[in-house]
Amino acid sequence: MGIKIPLPDPNGLPEEIGKIVSASPLNVVKMMANAPASFLGFQEFAAGVLYKSQFDPRKKEIAVCRIGQVTRASYEWTHHVRVARRLGITEEEITIIGSENPVTSLDEEGNLLCRVADEISLEVRLSDEALAQILERYGVQGATELILCCSYFNMISRFLESTRVELES
Question: What's the Cα-to-Cα distance from 99 to each of 15, 45, 70, 102, 162, rounded to whole Å?
């Protein structure tokens, strides 16, 4: 299998973190507990991006799936394709997100979401044109939340791939 960072033993973690890790089925959550000083802050940040954001969950998931694809993060891709299906993203849309480069076969908004995900993932800085488009479409808060979401999932993809987090069995 090769070298990887092992998942922590919940019994060896601070009590509060151990309880969270023991209750979670997700290996990404467990792996984060290897850095206890960052763990609770990470959980709070993740909740903000994932659940408290005002940005439409379906639109957010299109961008997240695209990030999983372009960063070649199989754990992220696999988990978020499941979420995408629950949010009504079709198999055809998932196939397009996972195969086109660049994505041009979705509707105008889907193509834009994938473009934003691509630019942030691959170029780091969003182009002026893409930034202007998302500001016009989503306003300051929506554009900021989309950029933050894309940035967050880029961090997660790099963490997952570098620690070699495996899919849950």
Answer: 43, 30, 10, 9, 23
What DSSP designation does 107 have?
A: -
pLDDT digits (tens, 9 = 90+) for 104-138: 999 999 999 999 999 999 999 999 999 999 999 99
C-alpha distance from residue 49 to each of 7, 25, 128 (Å): 24, 20, 23
From the list 162, 166, 155, the residue with the least C-alpha distance to 79 is 166
Do 148 and 85 share a structural domain? yes
Model confidence pLDDT, tens digit, residues 132-142: 999 999 999 99
Using the predicted structure, report yes or no on whether residue 1 has a pLDDT greater than 80: no
Q: Containing domain of residue 18, as a range? A: 11-52
Whether residue 169 is contained in a domain is answered as no
